[in-house]
Design a protein that fits this description.
The complex is a heterodimer of chains A (278) and B (256).
Chain A (H helix, E strand, L loop, with lengths): L7 H12 L2 E14 L3 E14 L3 E5 L6 H9 L6 E6 L2 E2 L7 E5 L10 H11 L4 H14 L15 H13 L5 E5 L7 H18 L2 E6 L2 H7 L2 E6 L4 E7 L8 H5 L2 H16 L6
Parallel strand pairs in A: 3-8, 3-9, 6-7, 7-8
Antiparallel strand pairs in A: 1-2, 1-4, 4-5, 9-10
Helix pairs in contact in A: 3-4, 3-5, 4-5, 7-9
Chain B lengths: L1 H28 L11 H11 L3 H34 L1 H14 L8 H8 L3 H25 L3 H9 L4 H12 L1 H25 L5 H10 L3 H29 L8
The chains are: A alpha/beta (278), B mainly alpha (256).
Chain lengths: 278, 256
């Protein structure tokens, strides 16, 4: 997106300085559901961690461990029962254009065309229709969907829908991308393609990303840090720093011992907690 | 392919109607019923064609159509607004739910004498009855449709910078359109029935009143004309509604 305008000489010192600051600060966040039928369910228990600006962070855990809920709390879509989330130092009180979500279900507006969907954010930000259309077309180029701008979402494949959803979110230039199992509904091949594309796009301006997934390979391939969560109550079990070089190429990583060892270590950790599912 | 299929289904759908008309014709031709009580469909349709140029008849049909439209329009505006507001605000929902629960099952036709007493013989009492009857299906369909909208659609819009109110009236309202239109179609059918009924009970004009007057005077041919007219109007309105729905629902999954 604006990656083209950031010159390396200007961008780099800026980035070094930014890495030192924490863009997202999650402090003792808990989420408790009180349901009359099933009683108290602790979805998240005292989660605390920080995310530095420009970091690609994954939250990894079994289904039902509350990892999506944590993402929704950071997004301001769901309130925490206790604890606080700060973004750029200010407490999160609701959704905002600094945090752009991408959902597993795509959540595209079915009545808008591909172009209309991507123009939505820029229009909300006060751009004129012409400006919004220009911005939207740039992003559709970025996700290789230029030819499909007049299509409706229902006419697209799952992979294409998710590309539109990513473009729609990038179009209002959020500082943080909140990705909720974005490739979870896609077939294995499309999933790999989109992971590669996401990394390519991410390399351009290195936005801060919080990425929720239950795929260990996906988390290791994409992230700088991985937070492994446990099941009910959702807690951070262990943090992994992924020191693999970037830009990452899948074929190279697959034969890289460090990649293999990390995948195995995380798989083992997750296997240990499997019995809790029953 | 699809045009051909539409044509085939159209012809298939017309068959039972043709059969009923033929049965009617056969009963008359075989003199199973006296012509003074059950006129032949030939007589009835000949008369209808003659009436198509009759100013008085067209005026009566126009009056009925006017009441139907105004009533239906008010019901749509009220039903959709209240339904959407109730879906968007817990306070409105809490306020409205008991009222709707109490009023929805009331036979509105029972209120008609009261409407006539309060609003008079003219348009207002008929329109009020149409509104009272058509409102609830539209309101309930809107509320349920809006409440069932995928929250992630709303979140996506909110994150892009839209205010909660704007989300409600652009995203939620549009996302609930398939459900709203289903409710509105039921409301439209009810409006057709109710406006006729109201005119039959107490009225000085309109198609329903024409029917009652003809029946009281044993003018059996004239009795059938308003019935066929309101049936044709209903068909036309339904077709117009289908065209409008198809336009509004571009992009949505196919409706069953």
């Amino acid at each position: 997106m604006n990656g083209g305008t950031v010159l390396p000489l200007v961008g780099r010192p800026d980035r070094i300085q930014r890495v030192a600051t924490n863009l997202i600060e999650i402090a003792a966040v808990s989420k408790v559901y009180d349901t009359s039928q099933r009683g108290r369910h602790v979805a998240l228990s005292e989660i605390s961690f920080d995310v530095a600006e420009g970091q690609f962070v994954s939250i990894l855990g079994p289904s039902g461990c509350g990892k999506s809920t944590l993402l929704y709390i950071v997004g301001g879509f769901v309130d925490a029962t206790s604890g606080s989330v700060r973004v750029s130092g200010a407490p999160v009180t609701g959704p905002g254009p600094d945090r752009g979500p991408v959902f597993q279900e795509f959540a595209l507006f079915p009545w808008k065309t591909v172009l209309g969907n991507v123009m939505y954010g820029p229009l909300q930000q006060g751009l004129s229709r012409t400006q919004a259309a220009t911005r939207a077309r740039e992003l559709l180029g970025l996700v290789h969907l230029t030819k499909y701008e007049s299509f409706y979402p229902k006419e697209l494949s799952g992979g294409m829908k998710q590309r539109v959803a990513l473009a729609r979110t990038l179009a209002y230039q959020p500082k943080i991308l909140l990705m909720d199992e974005p490739f979870g509904a896609l077939d294995a091949l499309t999933r790999k393609h989109l992971q590669n594309e996401l990394l390519e796009i991410w390399e351009r301006d290195r936005k801060t990303v919080m990425f929720v997934t239950h795929s260990v390979e996906e988390a290791v391939f994409l992230s700088d840090r991985i937070f492994v969560m446990t099941n009910s109550p959702g807690r951070i079990r262990k943090v992994f720093d992924v020191a693999l070089p970037r830009p990452r190429v899948r074929a190279e990583l697959l034969v890289d011992r460090r990649y293999q060892e990390m995948v195995v270590a995380i798989e083992k950790l997750m296997d240990e907690q499997e019995p809790e599912l029953s | 392919m699809s045009i051909r299929r539409n044509l085939v289904s159209l012809i298939a759908g017309a068959l039972p109607i043709m059969a009923a008309l033929f049965l009617w014709y056969a009963v008359c031709a075989l003199k199973l019923a006296p012509a003074s009580l059950l006129p032949s469909p030939v007589t009835v349709f000949t008369r209808l064609i003659a009436l198509a140029g009759d100013t008085n008849f067209l005026t009566q049909a126009g009056i009925t159509l006017f009441r139907l439209f105004v009533g239906f329009a008010i019901a749509v505006v009220l039903g959709v607004s209240i339904g959407i507001l109730a879906a968007g605000s817990r306070a409105v929902a809490t306020l409205m739910q008991p009222v709707v629960r109490v009023l929805a099952p009331v036979p509105k036709i029972a209120l008609y004498p009261a409407f006539v007493l309060v609003l008079g013989f003219d348009h207002s009492s008929k329109i009020a009855l149409v509104v009272a009857d058509a409102l609830f299906p539209i309101l309930l369909a809107t509320y349920q449709g809006a409440a069932a909208v995928e929250p992630k659609l709303v979140w996506s819009a909110r994150a892009a910078g839209a205010s909660p109110a704007k989300c409600l009236f652009t995203i939620v309202l549009t996302a609930a359109l398939p459900s709203i239109l289903t409710g509105a179609r039921i409301g439209l059918i009810i409006a057709c029935i109710v406006v006729f009924l109201a005119e039959m009970i107490t009225s000085t004009d309109g198609l329903g009143q024409m029917l009652v007057r003809a029946a009281r005077n044993f003018q059996t041919v004239d009795m059938f004309e308003p019935i066929i007219t309101i049936t044709l109007l209903g068909l036309l309105l339904n077709a117009a509604f289908n065209v409008l729905s198809a336009r509004l629902l571009v992009g949505f999954a196919e409706q069953p």
